[in-house]
Design goal:
Layout lengths: L1 E7 L4 E9 L5 E5 L10 H4 L6 E5 L17 H14 L5 E6 L1 H12 L4 E7 L9 H17 L9 H12 L3 H8 L3 E4 L2 E4 L15 H9 L5 E6 L9 H7 L3 E6 L5 H4 L1 H12 L4
Parallel strand pairs: 3-4, 3-5, 5-6, 6-9, 9-10
Antiparallel strand pairs: 1-2, 2-4, 7-8
Helix pairs in contact: 2-3, 3-7, 5-6
Amino acid sequence: MEEIEVELPRAGITLRGRRSGRPGGLPVLCLHGWLDNCASFTPLSERVEGLDLFAFDLPGHGLSDPIPGPTCQYLDYVACVLELARVLGWDRFQLVGHSLGGALSALIAGARPELVERLVLLDAIGPLSADPVLGRDSVTRYLNAYLADEPAPVYRSRSQALKARMQLADILLDTADRLLERDLRQVPGGFSWRSDVRLRYPFTLTFSEEQVRSYLANITAPVLFVGAERTALKEDYYEGRFAAVPRLRRVTLAGGHHLHMENPDPVAEAVRDFLTEVP
């Protein structure tokens, strides 16, 4: 995969990532999960042909610059992705999103449906939601963490950092090792994370479930939801979300939440067939 970087003048940051496949085709933009990076899509890129595939580190992840300001929330990321598409000159593109990237992809496709040709959601469908009290409390916890300004942890060795990354999201050794290549840096005393420290603060839950479903209902693109047998989607509201998407098809494949890395062959086949399907 070719290393690429794109400056976003409005956001005031640079995004870095990788590109693979066949230049000139309809671009496929891959958005990774929380505390992951674009390396999570390397197994997929190695198994699809004929697609112009772009995978960027989201702001504050991997090698990309962090979002300026005190917060880094869903709509901050959405704005950066939309600016990225504009800078690259894309009038239409296809989206593949995992976890956080799936939440962002659903918001993008719901807010700007004319931009998205097809949408693939990997064990994700929209952002987390909460009732007003839980939402308020999540904001309080984030602000407390922001003001405390605790530094990122330092690990004595790479193997210690690798173990911590596995435990953070209950992922396999190979999966964690692949992600570390863009997210670990040497510091005095050992190793620490490149990622924005704010990503480890409590996440703010600023959407109600009704708001999330309004975005999902406004998606006009065909949507493929690839769920994991050991899915991370445990909340009761997800069935209502599936029903809200007008043109949704669902498939469940073996693996955990990172199934596109743990079990890439059937995931790549499903994604490739869907994205190259003749209308």
